[in-house]
Specification:
about 850 residues, alpha/beta, Rossmann fold, 5-stranded parallel beta sheet, 26 helices, 28 strands, globular
């Protein structure tokens, strides 16, 4: 599913499955389905063409038609899914789904009734498809797909190329840092060519920075050039521009225009062969583009320098070094803002405006382009107009900023546009958890399962790509990316597009919301306000086709859940109830629900016994929810992939039935440890396991649990909180064989007498994160840890004295070493060695590096 084509990509294969499976359809009905599928495929192709055209170049009638198709595609999918849920209650993506449905139809209905239901469904979809086809022909979509190109606009970045250095604010420190990176370090040859890439989100000032450095350093080189690339470069023009910058007198000759790309590259290499050059390539969007450009530059051992700028981390990785440009500090932001608005020394003459300025600057988040654009917009306006701007939903009139940010958005492939747009549901400055976000994407159908990868792995790739493109900011802890934030200006852009495309509806603070022209709200997000029922006409409910209902930091009021017949995502997180507890009546009626998030929610009066009816549920998050026990019917949720129950207990015999689980977070009491340990071994698909275990005096009650860990052959992340063996008896761990798939092992409270034999390089070749508490660490044990080939992060609590000489083959990939309550002392050693002394003030650990 993507923003332009809506659910059409899902509808077509679902119709196709009806033809393949054993429904024993009448000939006439089969023909209708075949004809309908072909019509929809034709419409889908046209929509994909629309998706490739920049929005500003689309004819208004085409936009209207595409919007109609998207809305109707949702309705079509709802009709099909409603039928499938009635007869089977399983998800359409299951390859065996239609066979089971056909058998069940035979049991529940007569053949004639089943056929009539399918016929009614196809008739409904066919009528909608005919309307779309008629509008397609009426609007002549294929003929007027692209309107006449609009008059060219001036790139807002052009100003940065010609700004005087004295006008720049906050440029001094970044300039020094960038010039330092351009310098050769250590034993690098002084004649080596060096390339540095400046990376950061659009509008951060990358072009301004490199232009300032370029102007300062270019006098030290024989020849220089500064060119911009853009999203869709004309390589012939690009190479000619570089040549003209290098030597205008020679390369302005009209004959240069007849040369092709290869000839221009050859000319560049010939010209640069013996020269010390300094070239800036600004605004590169793709690795493939850079790989083509770089053929023009030769390593001639003359100490040449290259700078590139990009929003894409993958492009920056091609350089020798990366400079990550940071937002302006608040004081610099304020100086830049005041200089633009009030001139002079960059001070505010009005205390009241000073207070408003601080709130506006917070919105700009240190992005120079946003600050400059806002300052220009507010110049000469009254205090009342400043307040209006501050209270508006986003800075709609800051066209330069939005133009630059929108370039990054419209450069995304369709599936990433949809995933990014979903983030418009979150409030400003909200810390968005990665795992729950990906689960919502999966529930909405935005993520397609790969041949050898699951939904979450594919979704995680999407998440990482959005970080790579500088559209979201990663949130890390101990070297692990656990979530993200969205810059305020990016969020404004996403909310603007969401509103225009009827993707996500966000009510105002007073609860009012704009109903889209279709009369149907597809996704609804409440933010920092009361999440309460919306009044509607009983014959036309705008929320009757809701797919996602999200509330963050809200006061929850009783919602009539039964009205949301096709809801796929229900996330009520960080909410409180004025009544003191949360009502979840009719939750069991949400038969399409895939994601149920109730994390950090207040007390739940009663969890519905009928939750077992939610056969499609994939994610259930009850972390920090005040609920004592789940009903036993939870064991019927056999498609559950992720289960986080926090302190809520799960009845015995339930966990072993949830064989699709890939992610489990649970707290186990001492009297149920044995039972849980036996059930755990049945979860063979488990990849992430977080367990909080209560201490039991008899360590043998943990034997089944330890034994089951060895059966989890797909496990990648293991977090165990609780000391399940004492330091004098760790034979359970020594007999354990952990799966080689394990990447993350977190044992912060498990006290080991010595390093367990299950932790060694050959047994855990993929382990990159390790937290351990070892009382006695001898020389051999440290060698074992040092030999872990992928170990990036090590947190080690150790109480022993040992000296170890470590050669270059040890700790090859270690990036972070944390020794809690310890002192680290570096002591010079003879020759080329260094001596590390580590201890807690009482006992010391010495590591000699050679």
């Amino acid at each position: 599913m993507n923003l332009v084509t809506g659910a059409l990509g899902s509808v077509i294969p679902k119709l196709g499955e009806l033809l393949k499976e054993e429904y024993d359809l009448q000939t006439g009905l089969r023909k209708k389905i075949t004809c309908l599928s072909r019509d929809l495929e034709s419409i889908h192709v046209a929509l994909q063409t629309v998706a490739e055209v920049p929005p500003e170049q689309l004819n208004k009638q085409v936009k209207l038609w595409a919007s109609d198709v998207r809305e109707m595609s949702y309705d079509m999918e709802d009709v099909i899914d409603n039928f499938l849920v009635r007869v089977d209650g399983r998800e359409a993506r299951d390859p065996n789904r239609f066979k089971r449905a056909a058998k069940k139809i035979g049991k529940l209905f007569s053949k004639s009734k089943a056929r009539q239901q399918i016929a009614d469904m196809i008739k409904s979809i066919n009528e909608q498809a005919k309307v779309l086809a008629e509008r397609h022909n009426r609007y002549k979509v294929d003929e007027i797909m692209v309107k006449r190109a609009p008059s060219s606009t001036v790139d807002p970045r052009l100003e940065a190329m010609y700004k005087e250095v004295r006008e720049l604010v906050g440029i001094e420190k970044p300039s020094e840092e960038l010039m330092s990176k351009l310098s050769l370090q250590g034993d690098e040859s002084k004649n080596k060519m060096k390339m540095v890439s400046v990376v950061g989100v659009g509008g951060l000032g990358k072009t301004t920075l490199v232009k300032a450095v370029y102007d300062k350093l270019k006098v030290d080189f024989e020849c220089t050039a500064f060119v911009s690339v853009g999203q869709n470069p004309d390589f012939k023009k690009l190479f000619r521009d570089i040549l003209i910058d290098l030597d205008k007198a020679e390369y302005m000759d009209p004959k240069m225009s007849i040369l092709d790309e290869k000839q221009l590259i050859d000319e560049l290499r010939k010209y640069l062969k013996d020269k010390r050059y300094f070239i800036v390539i600004d605004d590169i969007w793709k690795v493939e583009i850079w790989k083509t450009i770089k053929w023009a530059f030769v390593e001639n051992k003359n100490g040449s320098r290259l700078i590139t700028t990009t929003r894409i981390v993958g492009v920056a990785d091609q350089a020798d070094e990366i400079y990550r440009l940071q937002p302006l500090p608040f004081e610099k932001s304020r100086k830049l803002f005041y200089t633009r608005v009030f001139g002079g020394e960059g001070r505010c003459p009005d205390n009241q405006l000073d207070e408003l300025s601080e709130k506006i600057l917070k919105k700009c988040g240190g992005v120079p382009l946003a600050i400059i654009t806002m300052a220009s917009f507010l110049l000469g306006k009254s205090r009342g107009q400043w307040i209006e701007v501050l209270n508006s939903i986003g800075f709609r009139d800051t066209s330069d900023t939005m133009q630059i940010l929108s370039l990054s958005y419209y450069d995304l492939p369709p599936h990433l546009k949809t995933c990014l747009l979903y983030l418009s549901a979150f409030p400003e400055d909200y810390e968005i958890a990665k795992d729950s976000l990906i689960s919502k994407w999966v529930a909405e159908g935005f993520v397609q399962k790969g041949e050898r990868t699951g939904f979450f792995e594919v979704g995680e790739g999407y998440f990482n790509e959005l970080i790579n493109r500088s559209l979201i900011m990663a949130e890390e802890y101990e070297g692990i990316v656990f979530g993200c934030r969205v810059h305020d200006m990016v969020l404004d852009l996403l909310q603007q597009i969401s509103q225009e495309e009827n993707f996500m509806t966000i009510p105002d603070n007073d609860g009012t919301m704009t109903i889209p022209p279709s009369g149907r709200v597809r996704r609804l997000a409440h933010q920092n306000r009361a999440a309460e029922p919306t009044h509607h006409d009983r014959h036309m409910d705008p929320l009757g086709h809701l797919r996602s209902l999200i509330a963050y930091n809200c006061e929850y009021k009783v919602l009539s859940l039964s009205r949301f017949k096709v809801l796929r995502v229900l996330a009520l997180e960080n909410c409180i109830s004025a009544e003191g507890y949360i009502h979840l009546e009719h939750l069991e009626s949400l038969l399409h629900l895939r994601y149920l998030g109730l994390g950090y929610l207040g007390p739940i009066q009663k969890f519905p016994e009928g939750i077992g009816a939610l056969k499609l549920l994939q994610t259930l998050n009850l972390n920090r929810t005040e609920m004592k026990e789940l009903p036993s019917s939870i064991g019927q949720l056999t498609q559950l992939i992720c289960l986080h129950v926090g302190r809520t207990s799960v009845p015995n015999g339930v966990i072993e039935n949830l064989t699709s689980l890939e992610d489990l977070e649970i707290m186990i009491c001492r009297d149920t440890i044995g039972q849980f340990g036996r059930e755990l071994g049945n979860l063979r698909e488990l990849k992430v396991l977080t367990v909080y275990l209560h201490y039991a005096e008899d360590p043998m009650v943990y034997s089944d649990f330890i034994d089951s860990l060895g059966k989890l052959h797909k496990i990648q992340y293991l977090n165990l909180y609780g000391d399940i063996t004492n330091t004098d008896d760790q034979h359970l761990w020594d007999t354990l064989v952990l799966p080689q798939t394990l990447q993350h092992l977190n044992l912060p409270y498990q006290k080991f007498n010595a390093l367990p034999s299950c932790i060694n390089p050959s047994a855990l070749p993929n382990l990159n994160y390790l937290v351990m508490y070892v009382q006695y660490m001898d020389q051999e044990a440290l060698k074992i840890l040092g030999g872990m080939p992928e170990l990036h992060y090590l947190k080690l609590v150790v109480y022993s004295l040992v000296t170890l000489t470590i050669h270059s083959c040890f700790f090859q990939k270690l990036r972070s070493l944390w020794l809690p309550l310890s002192m680290v002392r570096f002591v010079p050693n003879e020759g080329s060695s260094a001596l590390f002394t580590v201890g807690n003030g009482h006992r010391m650990l010495q590591l000699a590096l050679k």
